Amino acid sequence: MALVRTVLPRKSIVQPQHGASYETDVDNNWSIIDSLLQDSTDVSNAIAAANFGFTPTAGSLLTLNIASGKGFLNGVLTSYAGGTLALTAASTCYVYLDPASSLQPAFNTTGFLPGQLPVAVVVTGATAITSVTDKRTHFNQTFGLVAAGKVLAGPATGPDAYPAARALVASDLPGAPASANQFLGGPVTGAAADPAFRVLNVADLPASAIRKVAASDLTAQAADIGATVLYAVPAGAGGLYRLAAYLAVTQAATTSSTLPKVTIAWTDADNSTAQSLDITATNAGNLLTTLAQALAVVNAKAATSISFSTSGYASVGATAMQFAIHLRLEAL
Q1: What's the CA gap between 230 and 222, in Å, rounded?
Q2: Secondary structure string (H, E, C) spanning 128-172
Q3: Domain covering 209-331 in this structure, CATH number
Q4: What is the pLDDT of residues 317-332, one digit of tens each?
Q5: pTM of the predicted model, to two decimals?
Q6: CA–CA distance, 315 with 321 (Å, rounded to integer)
């Protein structure tokens, strides 16, 4: 009875028949299998190259060859032309794409860090590479260093898009209401903390700027003003401050009056000694044109106070003299 041989329909692998054609059948089957295995390897390599790029292979001595590839960096498709990377002898080298250098390959001997795109773990001997373990993944979206004054965020307007480094705009900020003369900022001093609404502080402004740091506006004054703190100098903010003062009679006395003088007090930043200075003189004019003004510069110690007071007020008659005093303090 004739033997019916099985033939696989897709690849023509045949069941060998004992006899004259047995060896031929076996040889043909092995040839087909070898071809299929090679095709499978080629397909796998092609898929890897298409999906990843940056294929790592051992080169001569301690050189790692890295094929060309593309990846997203801060939402921008970035290309690498391919090249080589010299590794350290007798080490385990963690090879990655460096987002700080436009996805250029780099390595360390400690391990992959967040933000790096792994390529391979390469073990080296004294003079040559001994093994290459592929560590590439499908996920090649990463983010590089962000310049000062910018944040990593989606688009300010328009359709959704990959995050990119850009400056903040008003629509990025929370819509919570804030009281007048407040802004959203971190703490004035101390450790970093979440932003909160607060008043502007001298430490928030550039050191080179002239900044108004304090003000006082008192009206309808009918007596001397005792020592009053105008500004508490913050820690770390000692230095030169300029004070402007303006006094004027706002209501003349029935008979006569004396507009008081203004005295300022502070602690000197260089010798830590309490200081005081009369910056205006008394004025007995008793007219609505009676006034005094002054500018003074002090060198105030940090964590002390700058204060003011008046003295010499006098008023004679049923109607008392009244005056207004306006003070402005600037950091220089």
Answers
A1: 20
A2: CEEEEEECCCCCCEECCCCCCCCEEECCCCCCCCCCEEECCCHHH
A3: 2.60.120
A4: 999 999 999 999 998 8
A5: 0.44
A6: 6
